[in-house]
UniProtKB/TrEMBL annotation:
Species this chain originates from: Streptomyces tibetensis
Keywords: Membrane, Transmembrane, Transmembrane helix
InterPro entries: ABC-2_transporter-like
Pfam family, one: ABC2_membrane_6
Name of the protein in its database record: ABC transporter permease
Entry's transmembrane regions: 32-57, 69-87, 128-146, 152-175, 208-229, 241-261
Amino acid sequence: MAERGVLLEGLRAYRLIAGMWVRSSMAYRTSFVVTVFGNLTVTALDFVGILLMFSQVDSLGGWSLPEVALLYGLSATSFGIADLVLGSMDVLGARMRDGSFDTLLVRPVPVLAQVGADRFALRRLGRITQGTVVLGWALVSVDVDWSVPKVLLVPVMVVSGAAIFSAVFVAGAAFQIYAQDAAEVQNAFTYGGTTLLQYPPSVFGKDLVRGVTFMLPLAFVNWVPAVYVLGRPYPVGLPGWAAFASPPVAVACCVLAGLAWRTGLRSYRSTGS
């Protein structure tokens, strides 16, 4: 019951803090629209690069453009949701350096909710919108013999992928507490991870594929379930049920990230500033 109370309190605090930042950004409507459009345009350049690549080749690692677009759309949408919810976690190091992190610790509100909602930016909706558009086009264009399990697996991938990326954001923030910053290390696994997953696993070495399957299980965001949907073999041998393992993997990642966060908070030592 106590854990549930803390969770509800954290969600309420997150909603209030995020709402404050939303009202602040909406005070200047034109600026908000321009920033959202700019964010959408910048993120769209990633897929433009893929389109340019396919203007010169017929396939990438044996994957067609609609199949790669499916990977791209799943990765971009899942990451976009996590980035919208917890994308401000990378400022934790700066807060520790200037001493403002200590202020969060003395407030009667869960620290994770405060850090996660800090500078909540609706402009990040541009990434989600762009990823969803590409995903929709890919689902219509890809050559798949659709069945009920495959149809249901698509939204499951998006939700589970968002949870996995959120766990990586939280775990990265916990690492920043130990390292007294290291935001770029966190970005290597978050922004770098979503870029990696936008391309088929067949273009990477097996050691890398094993690493993002068994060590940092980003492959369960889209690679593993997507090969089932597309009827393709996975470079690393996995049992058939692994295609449906994204939800439990996401839960495990969130639990481990939560434990890492708690351990990091307990080990934190103030800068004294």
